[in-house]
């Protein structure tokens, strides 16, 4: 399979991660997913009344400048490591 197919498969696997997955891990997954699928963050940071939105925006912003292919590979690797961690 190609990188895009592996990424799509990992995205499906990520949906099955247990609820016990830490928020830090979930935010890292979110940031890598957005960077891989959209590219650099291009929206304004949410305000103080949206802490969840701010956390997600910050996670995506941390990936800024990373190529979409690199983000896809890191996402795939992270999903595999989390599956092993929470298995």
From TrEMBL:
Entries under Pfam families matching the protein: ACBP
Superkingdom field: Eukaryota
InterPro entries: Acyl-CoA-binding_prot_CS, Acyl-CoA-binding_protein, Acyl-CoA-binding_sf, FERM/acyl-CoA-bd_prot_sf
Keywords (A to Z) from UniProt: Lipid-binding
One Gene Ontology term of the molecular function aspect: fatty-acyl-CoA binding
GO aspect biological process, one term: fatty acid metabolic process
Record domain ACB: where: 3-87
Family under the similarity heading: Belongs to the ACBP family.
Name this protein carries in UniProt: ACB domain-containing protein
Naturally occurring in which organism (per UniProt): Chlorella vulgaris
């Amino acid at each position: 399979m190609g990188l895009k197919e592996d990424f799509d498969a990992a995205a499906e696997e990520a949906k099955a991660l247990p609820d016990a997955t830490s928020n830090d891990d979930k935010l890292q997954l979110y940031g890598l997913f957005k960077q891989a699928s959209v590219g650099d963050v291009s929206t304004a940071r949410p305000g103080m009344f949206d802490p969840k939105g701010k956390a997600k925006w910050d996670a995506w912003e941390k990936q800024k400048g990373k190529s979409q292919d690199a983000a896809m590979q890191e996402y795939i690797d992270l999903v595999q490591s989390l599956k092993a961690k929470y298995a």
